[in-house]
């Protein structure tokens, strides 16, 4: 490869110019050759008609000339055809190179725009992080210094300011709260976080002055109680051998009948431990489902020795099925379980069995 690479566009243009010039030259020569071939054919025809073949030398010369001019014309016609094909190929190469250049230009322009978008997103990311940090700091400060009255407490303060923060940051997506809309003018009277905070700050300043003047007790704001730690209570399907009951999350009495039920996992664990409930897929669960389907009103019991579920033997008269057994108290309160689990999550005691 040479030190300097050839420009593909200039090379394609130069090839096309050269081929076009050669093609034009061949076409000119072809026109002359066609004229000569026509003249030679006419001369040969004249000799054949007028001399009756008497002048053999003249006829041979005319024939040779006719063949030569015909061959010359055929060669030039073939050259013109080949050059026309080469010109078409050169034009295709030139168009391909033009397409490549245009595609490269468009691709580079798009990549440059992608880079600008990426930079813009990075700026928004940085700004959003700074905004989030400033918002957290504001919320913490408000929590420590805002009374629950007379302005609705820290949550109301933060909520109103946040609504205007969103409006300022994204005005097309968020409007100020409708409480700030003046129907008389058709305009929002408050459009910035500072304007939203102004009346609440004025109320806080007035409260401070009332304390100074003795109108209010000299106390600092009382921090709001933290919301209770959420406790996730999973559920599980249990096939109960007999009716059962337990205390719910509000300490209310809850009942389930014999059969398959979805219950809180702690209730299920208690039922399994007391052998009044069985997991789906076990032989006991399958038997409970089958027997209750066949005779819903017939009570069931567990054969401890064989581990099998069976119907309670019929009454002495041999006719009436034995009803379901009495409801068993599982002796568990979901209210107490949730409280113990919440204490454990916070760092307290363990969950009761």
Give the strand order, joined by hyphens, for the main sheet: 6-3-7
**Count of discrete domains:** 3
Radius of gyration of CA atoms, rounded to a whole number: 50 Å
The number of E-state strands comes to 10
> Which percent bin holds the helix content?
55-70%
User: Helical segment tally?
Assistant: 7
Largest sheet: 3 strands, antiparallel
| Mean pLDDT value | 86
Uncertain regions spanning at least 5 consecutive residues: 349-353
Assign an overall shape: elongated
The topology string of helices and strands comes to HHHEEHEEEEHEHEEEH
Structural class, from helix and strand content? mainly alpha
Please give the alpha-carbon distance between the first and last residues: 84 Å
Strand content: 5-15%
Label this structure with key terms:
mainly alpha, elongated, disordered C terminus, 7 helices
């Amino acid at each position: 490869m040479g030190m300097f690479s050839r420009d593909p566009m200039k090379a394609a243009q130069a090839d096309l110019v050269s081929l076009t010039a050669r093609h034009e030259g061949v076409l000119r020569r072809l026109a002359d050759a066609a004229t000569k071939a026509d003249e030679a054919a006419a001369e040969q025809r004249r000799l054949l008609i007028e001399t009756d073949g008497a002048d053999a030398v003249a006829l041979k010369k005319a024939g040779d000339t006719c063949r030569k001019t015909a061959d010359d014309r055929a060669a030039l016609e073939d050259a013109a055809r080949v050059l026309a094909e080469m010109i078409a190929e050169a034009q295709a190469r030139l168009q391909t190179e033009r397409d490549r250049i245009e595609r490269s230009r468009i691709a580079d322009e798009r990549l440059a725009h992608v880079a600008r978008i990426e930079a813009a997103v990075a700026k928004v990311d940085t700004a959003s992080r700074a905004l989030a940090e400033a918002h957290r700091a504001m919320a913490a400060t408000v929590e420590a210094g805002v009374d629950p009255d007379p302005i609705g407490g820290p949550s109301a303060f933060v909520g109103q300011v946040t609504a205007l923060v969103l409006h300022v940051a994204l005005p097309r997506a968020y409007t100020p709260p409708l409480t700030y809309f003046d129907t008389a003018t058709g305009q929002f009277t408050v459009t910035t976080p500072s304007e939203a905070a102004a009346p609440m700050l004025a109320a806080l300043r007035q409260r401070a002055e009332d304390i100074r003047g003795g109108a209010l007790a000299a106390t600092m704001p009382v921090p709001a109680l933290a919301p209770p730690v959420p406790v996730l209570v999973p559920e599980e399907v249990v096939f109960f051998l007999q009716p059962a009951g337990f205390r719910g999350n509000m300490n209310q009495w809850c009942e389930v009948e014999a059969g398959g039920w979805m219950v809180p996992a702690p209730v299920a664990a208690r039922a399994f431990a007391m052998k009044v409930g069985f997991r789906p897929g076990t032989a006991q669960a399958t038997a409970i489902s089958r027997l209750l389907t066949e005779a819903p009103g017939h009570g069931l019991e567990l054969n401890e020795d064989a581990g099998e579920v069976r119907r309670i033997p019929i009454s002495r008269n041999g006719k009436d099925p034995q009803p379901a057994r009495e409801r068993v108290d599982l002796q568990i309160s979901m209210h107490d379980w949730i409280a113990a689990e919440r204490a454990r999550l916070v760092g307290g005691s363990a969950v009761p069995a």
